[in-house]
């Protein structure tokens, strides 16, 4: 919707018929959340991947400076996790470090994602780079391990059956190996 406004110059005893300035006002859409770098109205994995790539690149693009300190670093990642959690999670709490699937829980799915990309140069959250150093490595695993089986709402998450079964199989294998000594 365009709104055309005309302004007239006042001359002591009334308005003249000639406008001295005119223009159109076009209402703009309300800006999206600042954690939405793609402009689609969502704070999603694509936005976080873009931020992680920017942190790893160390070019300090102001668009990614969420905390306003003129440096794009892990503090901005933490701010993104807080803002996106407030928008996306029912609890409105920050996403946890190493919640690579952004489902609100650090669990076996996040470990599997980290494991798929371990020891690769990635610079993407969706590929397990939690610390934004451009590599999915042991440091990112330590972030996963520190938060494993917890959720953004503060409750402990129950490990998936697949993780329990894997632990059970590992224990059996270790027991069998011990018997054969």
Name of the top-level CATH class of the domain at 45-169? Mainly Alpha
Please indicate the percent range of residues in DSSP E strands (runs of 2 or more). Answer: 5-15%
**What do the pLDDT scores average to?**
81
Q: Please summarize the sheet with the most strands.
A: 2 strands, antiparallel
Rg calculated over all Cα atoms: 26 Å
Strand adjacency order, main sheet: 1-2
Order of helices and strands: EEHHEHEEHEH
- The total count of helices amounts to 5
Provide the helix percentage. 25-40%
> The CATH topology of the domain at 45-169 is what?
Type 1 dockerin domain
Runs in which pLDDT lies below 50 for 5 or more consecutive residues are 165-181
Structural class: alpha+beta
Shape: globular
**Using DSSP, what is the number of strands?**
6
Folded structure, characterized:
The chain has 181 residues and is an alpha+beta fold. Helices cover 37% and strands 15% of the residues. It is built from five helices and six strands; from the N terminus they run ββααβαββαβα. The protein has helices at residues 45-57, 74-88, 108-117, 138-147, 161-179, and strands at 3-10, 15-25, 105-106, 120-121, 135-136, 150-151. Strand 1 (3-10) and strand 2 form a beta hairpin. It is globular and about 35 Å long.
């Amino acid at each position: 919707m365009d709104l055309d406004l005309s302004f007239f110059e006042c001359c002591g005893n009334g308005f003249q018929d000639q406008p001295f300035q005119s223009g159109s006002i076009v209402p703009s859409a309300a800006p999206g959340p600042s954690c939405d770098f793609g402009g689609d109205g969502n704070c999603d994995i694509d936005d976080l991947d873009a931020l992680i790539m920017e942190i790893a690149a160390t070019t300090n693009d102001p668009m990614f400076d969420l905390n306003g300190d003129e440096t794009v670093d892990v503090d901005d990642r933490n701010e993104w996790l807080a803002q996106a959690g407030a928008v996306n999670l029912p609890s409105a709490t920050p996403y946890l470090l190493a919640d690579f699937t952004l489902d609100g829980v650090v669990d076996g799915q996040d470990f599997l994602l980290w494991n798929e990309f371990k020891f690769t140069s990635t610079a993407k959250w969706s590929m397990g780079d939690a610390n934004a150093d451009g590599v999915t490595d042991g440091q990112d695993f330590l972030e996963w391990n520190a938060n494993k089986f917890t959720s953004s709402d503060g409750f402990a998450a129950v490990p998936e059956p697949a993780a329990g079964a894997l632990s059970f199989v590992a224990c059996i294998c270790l027991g069998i190996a011990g018997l054969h000594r």
